[in-house]
Amino acid sequence: MILLDGKLVSEELKKQIAIEAAEMLEKTGRKPHLVAVLVGNDGGSETYVASKMRNCEKVGFKSSLLRYDETVTEAELLNKIEELNKDNSIDGFIVQLPLPKHIDPDKVTEAIDYKKDVDGFHPINLGRMQRNLPCFLPATPFGIMLMLEFYGIKTAGKNCVVIGRSNIVGSPMSVLMARNANPGNATVTLTHSKTQNLKELTLKADIVIVAIGKKNYLTADMVKDGAVVIDVGMNRETSDVTKSGYKLFGDVDFDNVAPKCSYITPVPGGVGLMTIVSLLRNTLSAAKKEFYN
Ligand SMILES: Nc1nc(=O)c2c([nH]1)NC[C@@H]1CN(c3ccc(C(=O)N[C@@H](CCC(=O)O)C(=O)O)cc3)C=[N+]21
What we know:
Keywords: Amino-acid biosynthesis, Histidine biosynthesis, Hydrolase, Methionine biosynthesis, Multifunctional enzyme, NADP, One-carbon metabolism, Oxidoreductase, Purine biosynthesis. By secondary structure, the chain is an alpha/beta fold. The protein has two domains: about 30-115, Rossmann fold; about 140-275, Rossmann fold (3-Layer(aba) Sandwich). The protein contains ten helices and eleven strands.
């Protein structure tokens, strides 16, 4: 069993990103600039956004955090997005999800200029991804592809089962694994809450990608010997009343599944770190206008 080390891979990729950011600074006098919009104070979102900002500094990007109270109206948020779209000093921005219930995440996503959509959630980027055209790829699925590539894991012709069909992970993940690219060219089964006999499907899978948000969901009896298991779960359990101490669990029963695997990602230290580095990569691509003018 080989551990897919998100720390190792992300640090390696960040070195290259830092080099390109420094080149850009030298040539143009400016740094790539990412803005994150954070609404409310969800514990998970606070951690992830803080990490995104910290990592921007590490690779020599400029980063700004825009905070809104959870009472902000949808109209106010959409106005701000309009401003960010027009601001030439900003290369890319993200609106951290989830949003409060009174704000429609689809409206927000579609309001973002697709040329600055470094999360890759805009329908134009999703459509271009599906067509195999240059575009911003959604950060988590992109990070998983970079991980597979780094370890030279063959995906062509393999059976891949994706568990969970969210807009930000499962659904785009299934597209990336199926499209005619490398990594890619897998035979993909996208499973969800209405799927019957999931275990029958996962037992045939060479690659299982779990993004469902339930601790210990994928158990050893569901996995075939030698499978590659990618765990996207970020289930936090607070262990004390202060809420500052928490432990993170994936969706995989790691201790029992890992011995059966050829490769497996840990949580923490796996996919989450790759998500961050993908966002950095997308921000650099935005600043260098690699996809759009
Ligand atoms: N607009 C938007 N874009 C996102 O990219 C986005 C989002 N909304 N909402 C939530 C998810 C989740 N996500 C993670 C990022 C980093 C880690 C990460 O760094 N995880 C570390 C540990 C973090 C910890 O200790 O809590 C690890 O796995 O080792 C995890 C999860 C980005 N997301």
